[in-house]
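Lab notebook, entry 197. We have the chain sequence and a SMILES string for manganese (II) ion, and the next step in the workflow is to get a structural model of the bound complex before anyone spends time on docking refinements. Request logged below.

Task: model protein plus manganese (II) ion, output structure tokens.
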Amino acid sequence: MRTARIARTTSETDILVEIDLDGTGAYDVSTGIGFLDHMIEQFSRHSLIDVTLKVDGDLHVDQHHTTEDSALALGQAITQALGDKAGIGRYGTAYSPMDETLARVALDISGRPYLVWNAHFTQEKLGELDTELIEHWFHSVAQTAGITLHIEQIYGQNNHHICEAIYKGFARAMRTAVEPDPRKEGMIPSTKGQLGG
Ligand SMILES: [Mn+2]
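Result returned:
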């Protein structure tokens, strides 16, 4: 079973995350930030990874800890559920259109965390979410999931579309990367013999 459950409590946030990499895209997300919930729900639905994510964070301070820790915990769960990564596709790429916007996401579950971010928001907020935290969310998930993650907004104007196209592209690229490849039959997809970084 490629599942994981992480409970993580700090002085800033109290988090529970459960995932099933071989799910159906069923989700139960509540971070206290509506727009962030909407994005993580898109991630689940389009990756087919089941995601339960409950965050009780210090939103009276600001949204930083809640946003960051939701991504750190989700990434940690992905790492735990993948185990030794035997038999997975490892790489994923998606072009993600949404109305006037086109985003591209390319990733490698390499064990080497890296974020290349080439997207720009022209609004300070999407709903209640500070848009500067979106890049930070992807940086954080890349760190704990061990993903080399390249995200590009090729074009687009509407900030909601830009953000949603990126999350959906990330979801579809992750779906490809975590999917078992029957031709690999339990092989570690690296000539190094490991994908631990
Ligand atoms: Mn939307």
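Notes for the group: The mean pLDDT is 96. Worth checking against the assay data. The beta strands are 3-9, 13-20, 27-30, 50-57, 91-98, 101-108, 114-118, 125-126, 129-130, 148-155.
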